Amino acid sequence: MTRFVDEKDIAILRVIDGLRTAFEWVPIEKIVEKLPYKDFEVKRRIKELDKMELVRYRYVSHYNSFAAMLTEKGFDTLALWDFKKHDVIEKVGTEIGVGKESVIIGCVSPKGEWVVVKFHRYWAKEFRNIRKSLAYASIIVRGKELNLEDSRIDIPRAKAQVEMNALEKLHKIGINVPEPLGINRHAIAMKMLTRNGGIPAPQLVRVKLTDPVTAYETIIEDYIKMVDKGDVIHGDFNEYNVIITENETPYYIDFPQAVPKSYPEAKFLIRRDLNKISHYFQLKYRLKTKDVEKILKDLMEK
Ligand SMILES: Nc1ncnc2c1ncn2[C@@H]1O[C@H](COP(=O)(O)OP(=O)(O)OP(=O)(O)O)[C@@H](O)[C@H]1O
Ligand SMILES: [Mg+2]
User: Model-level pTM greater than 0.85?
Assistant: First the structure.
């Protein structure tokens, strides 16, 4: 069944979201209680929202009643609705990328500019890798620890907040990152990096550079500035997270695992980031690798 959601559906989704911390499955009576609509209408709509996979709705024996829970798609819908309400986006286009860690869709702003919305996901395997960095950044950025009991929801939200914080800091000091436009729940909106307007610019791994020497130089200089002036250590710096825009200008994306210099394993991460990108240029373009240890030493002494 397909239909569009309207204000009433959104009001229902919001109530379920609001009661989420009190109930894993929110009993239907509690939902009805908080809404100005007739009982039968709320139930009919929830059944439809269930068919649209925005909620799950089922009988829960210990409440002796039906109860609902938001799905990932339900949270996505709330975030998109709010981005539209706040004029961050006007129209929703196609999916650009779907991975286990995130889903990326192309949108258009009210001014007609291309925007991407990135929905963060919880994925256990990734979380094992970024658990330490995310826990650390989370306290600095959000002032609170990760809520592991509520990990399905809290972890994507923490990732979005950490990524947004890094984009804001770096954009402010003039590093080439997508301009951040807004954050809502587990979703962030940013300008789309394009080539020929409307087509997302490719990842470094997908292009054959005409001037790899300059690109490698620029990328290393930008990385040093990110750490030194922005206090942002990317932590997953590689040929997939560098985007090549017009005139072979590199841009940097994908910051949910970023940490500040004060992170205990900062040195390890900087070394790994610089080595990864250097190996790529060495393998693909046969460039001489820069002295990573020297860059690291200079950065740590600053
Ligand atoms: N602002 C942007 N402009 C253009 N394309 C983008 C933008 N942000 C992300 N993308 C595209 O979406 C892909 C995935 O984005 P990102 O690296 O941030 O997410 P991810 O969770 O690491 O996903 P993946 O696991 O696929 O790398 C990027 O490699 C890029 O091609
Ligand atoms: Mg990526």
Answer: yes
